[in-house]
Write a structure and sequence with these properties.
By secondary structure, the protein is α/β, with parallel strands linked by helices. It has four helices and eight strands, in the order E-H-E-E-E-E-H-E-H-E-H-E. The chain has a six-stranded parallel beta sheet, with helices on both faces. Strands 3-4 form a two-stranded antiparallel ribbon. It starts with 9 loop residues before the first strand and ends in a 5-residue tail after the last strand. The model has no long low-confidence stretch (mean pLDDT 95). Bound molecules: pyrazine-2-carboxylic acid and zinc ion (ZN).
């Protein structure tokens, strides 16, 4: 007899497969970002209980853009963010070139992405004053500034397992997979379906994912 333990209801989360994250024209192009497309489109044909695409969706004055800070350079400098509700809580966030500005062409999902398979698009990063790599929550702890509602969507649909792909492995994919696991979903990142901003950090990122119980698996399951 089937028990609750046998239930397997997988969800697919396709993180930030947007023009600005892809060569050749993306303002924050992830090296070889387009190489993930065949894998992602293949996964989008499979019978997941729900398939979600996320979009980084920033206002023009977003805190993560180096251009909004005098004398700061993208990819190199960081800025400190203070939690207005809890001034003791701060975090450092890396500064980026302007990217994924709401309603610009760079913020669109890649035209090669087979969006017919996508059930729901989740936007994130709309609040000017907080960085939000994860598709679930911003990094502030008390109180959180943003909850995209994604965890509730997955729970409402009875999802047990979450498969994460997209861009970039070392930022939004990692943060999304970690929050997914912390929300109680069995979570895997599919290796062929993601690329890193900094390929050199792959091993460190994989170790930090595995330390919290997120598996990084190949399409062959290994
Ligand atoms: C991302 C940097 C800034 C990502 C988003 O999607 O990984 N990285 N914003
Ligand atoms: Zn961003």
């Amino acid at each position: 007899m089937a028990s609750a333990k046998d239930i397997f209801k997988p969800a697919l989360i396709v993180v930030d497969v947007q023009d600005d994250f892809c060569p050749p024209n993306g303002t924050l192009a992830v090296p070889n970002g387009r190489a993930i497309i065949p894998t992602v489109n293949h996964l989008l044909t499979l019978p997941f209980a729900v398939k979600i695409a996320t979009k980084d969706w920033h206002p023009r004055d977003h805190i993560s853009f180096a251009s909004n800070h005098v004398g700061k350079r993208p990819f190199v400098d960081f800025t400190t963010v203070v939690n207005p509700e809890n001034p003791e809580e701060t975090y450092e966030t890396r500064l980026w070139p302007d990217h994924c500005i709401q309603n610009t062409s760079g913020a669109e999902l890649l035209s090669e992405l087979d969006v017919r398979g996508v059930d729901l698009v989740v936007e994130k990063g709309m609040r000017r004053e907080v960085e939000m790599y994860s598709a679930f929550f911003d990094p502030l702890k008390s109180p959180r500034a943003c909850d995209s509602g994604l965890a509730d969507v997955l729970r409402e649909r009875g999802v047990t397992d979450v498969f994460v792909v997209g861009l970039a492995f070392d930022y939004c994919v990692q943060a999304t997979a970690m929050d997914s696991k912390a929300e109680g979903f069995t979570t895997c990142v599919v290796r062929e379906g993601t690329k890193a901003v900094d390929e050199g950090t792959w091993g460190t990122v994989e170790t930090s994912l595995e330390d919290v119980g997120v598996k990084v698996v190949g399409l062959d399951g290994e």
